[in-house]
Design goal:
This protein has 224 residues and is of the alpha+beta class. The chain has five helices and eight strands. The protein starts with 13 loop residues before the first strand and ends with a helix.
Length: 224
């Protein structure tokens, strides 16, 4: 790179999460704020204090379960943010991504003794129920049947119309798996000699405190 040339811009991190979970969080947050204001204005009893701490505890649980979970992909790897724990996986360690009820990242890395370490990490960010998977397969089969010769999807001139699958959303598990797999393939192709290392998992103590503190406050208020 010659002087005066700009360094290549790094791709921006991509975040995958469920928009439905985010909507649930904000709806609950509005509900909780309204009730807390009502308790602060009208409640002067011990029961009102218990209700306020209980509402704070439920709000903390909804926040950690609905607002926190996400998948963040950047140039270095994948960050899996779950309700209470964070996991960091380098692209070289990503052996595959699939889905059952949750998206699962399968990791593999070489061990010093010549063996191979492995681990599967599930992400709470995007859910994929078996019912939705079965429905998606049925829709795909129907589209294939309509596009096949003799199918009812032919137009007046005997040509099959172009299939237009619905646009994927951030909550679509298949779309997330496809996008993350493509990013992993691109990163590994760009750095084929990079050594895979074990994923790093850490507790998010702020999220833990958000649940533990109001739970303890509620216990103290109830038994005081």
């Amino acid at each position: 790179m010659t002087a005066g040339q700009d360094a290549p811009a790094r791709p921006r991190p991509q975040t995958f999460r469920s928009p439905f979970a985010v909507a649930i969080w904000w709806l609950w947050a509005l509900f909780a704020v309204g009730n807390l204001i009502d308790l602060a204005v009208q409640g002067r009893t011990h029961g009102s204090l218990d209700a306020a701490f209980g509402l704070l505890l439920v709000t903390s649980v909804v926040y950690t379960a609905a607002q926190r979970p996400r998948l963040v992909a950047d140039s270095g790897g994948l960050t899996i943010v779950n309700p209470l724990r964070d996991h960091r996986v380098g692209w070289a360690a990503v052996a595959g991504i699939d889905a059952a009820e949750l998206i699962r990242v399968r990791c593999k890395w070489p061990l010093d003794d010549g063996g191979t370490g492995s681990r599967a990490i599930s992400s709470w960010a995007v859910h994929s129920s078996r019912r939705k998977q079965a429905a998606a397969r049925m829709r795909a089969q129907r589209r294939a049947a309509r596009a096949a010769p003799g199918g009812r999807g032919f137009g007046a001139f005997g040509t099959a119309p172009e299939a237009r699958p619905p646009a994927p959303t951030a909550a679509d598990a298949d779309h997330v798996i496809t996008a993350l797999t493509a990013l992993a393939d691109q990163a590994n192709a760009a750095a084929p000699d990079e050594r895979a290392v074990p994923p790093v998992s850490t507790w998010n103590w702020m999220a833990v405190a958000l649940i533990v503190v109001p739970a303890l406050a509620l216990l103290i208020a109830v038994f005081a």
